[in-house]
Amino acid sequence: MSAAPVLAVDAVGHTFPSGTTALTGVSLAIADGEFVALLGPSGCGKTTLLSLLAGLAAPTAGSIAWWGEPLPPPGRPFGYVFQAPTLMPWARVAANVRLPLELRGSDRATAQRAALAALARVGLAEFADAWPRELSGGMRMRASIARALVASPLLLLLDEPFAALDEFARNRLDDELSHWWRDAGFTAVFVTHSIQEAVFLATRVVVMAARPGRVIADLAIDAPFPRGPAWRASPAFATLCADISRRVAAAAERAA
Amino acid sequence: MTPRLAWRLLPPLAVAALLVAAWQAWVTLAAVPAYIVPSPRLVAHTLVADRALLAASLGITLGVALQALAVALVVGVLVAIAFAQSRWIEASFYPYAVLLQVTPIVAIAPLVIIWVKDTHVALVLCAAVVALFPVIANTTLGLRSVDPGLRDLFRLNRATRWQTLTRLAIPSALPYFFGGLRVATGLALIGAVVAEFVAGTGGQGAGLAYQILMAGIQLNVPRLFAALVLIAAAGVVLFSCASLLAWLALRHWHESELPPR
Questions:
Q1: Are B35 and B221 in contact (CB under 8 A)?
Q2: Cα gap A31→A45, rounded to integer Å
Q3: What pLDDT, on a 0 to 100 scale, did the predictor assign at position A1?
Q4: CB-based contact (8 Å) between A103 and chain B?
Q5: Cβ distance of B167 and A131 shorter than 8 Å
Q6: How many CA atoms lie within 13 A of B127 on its CB side?
Q7: Is A90 within 8 Å of B252 when comparing Cβ atoms?
Q8: Chain A residues near residue B252 by CB distance under 8 angstroms
Q9: Residue B10: inside a domain, yes or no?
Q10: B212 is a domain residue
Q11: B121: exposed, middle or buried (C-beta count within 10 Å: 0-12, 13-18, 19+)?
Q12: How many CB atoms sit inside 10 A of residue B201's CB?
């Protein structure tokens, strides 16, 4: 692999056609294997930044490079997990998970093998033939993550994937996501508005503020892995959360 | 027959039995002459007695309606796919689809019958024009009603236009398409009957509309009623077939066809 960072964001700004400025002056380099949490209140442009990182829209100012290239290279698929599970209701769970591979030209048998492996990894092995509506909210999100992981992505982008879940399910999925990330070794960018979730998961928390959306802090979280409930209960965890909380509040006050 | 199906069929059948009983009672008690309103018994008797004539006519009318429906579905879906490809195409041609819809078929049927030599083809064309619009309108709406998240997912995975159409837009459009199909079946039948009225085809090609026309002239009101009953029954059967198709296609996933909890 080249020495170029996975993602190099250089002075990126984004203004919608309506004139609303969502982001301004964001610079960020994300190295191979990092788990970066983009943390901020609603309206800080974190979801917009993620869709720019996914190449779904082009920034109106600045530039983004993927592995040193100006466009996402087709040979390096990345996974994307949406806020909602976003499964195709007319397809069984396995068919949903197969989709990224089939769209990229895999034959069905190969895709099905990979899909079953991905489903097993997220604990949905028995639900391959179920319909999405038969799954609970948390299980749908697992299926959605299986779909994002099926092509063995080098980069996984997640947009508040667990925000709609109850706290028990969210903590559990956070634990497992941390596990999957260490197992598979992809680079992750995780958008969230939960300070606890960011500090729990990330090797690095990028704190953003709103109006206009910008980066106000970039903090390394040095706690060792594997992380589990013990990390969530530790004093260091609480101190980090309190520190970030203070920074977010101060930025909000300055803006007001 | 499953109990659930029985529970769905029972109430409308009960209503039908009540209405027929009331009709019979009224005709008998008020001594309404058969040339004004025949009794249900007489209509049933006529259905049996004239079965050869009526069955042949029913076959012709149903044939026109089904062929018209097939034409409307093929043309309607293709037009909708073209509309969904670009807003430009839709903006340019949608007004003409509306024009086709608002022009009364009775007004253009004589022209079509003059232009097209083969009367059967002319009838199918007229009925297809009537059935076309709901297919276009609903399918276009459906093809545009794709979950934006899924659209992004397809983009992220570099789906081709063809993949996006066949694996995303068309499945998303199915519930809307079936809504259009249900309306179109009824309209195809109405279109067939109206076109037959205008064409006035008799002899070998006489459909139910012709039987109604003739029965009216001959004051054979029981036969007129029998033909009407057949048209209504054909409409109900066509609609039920469309509903069955919708159920088969959507029963696993779409809210409209899921069993109540």
A1: yes
A2: 22
A3: 47
A4: yes
A5: no
A6: 33
A7: yes
A8: 90, 131
A9: no
A10: yes
A11: middle
A12: 20
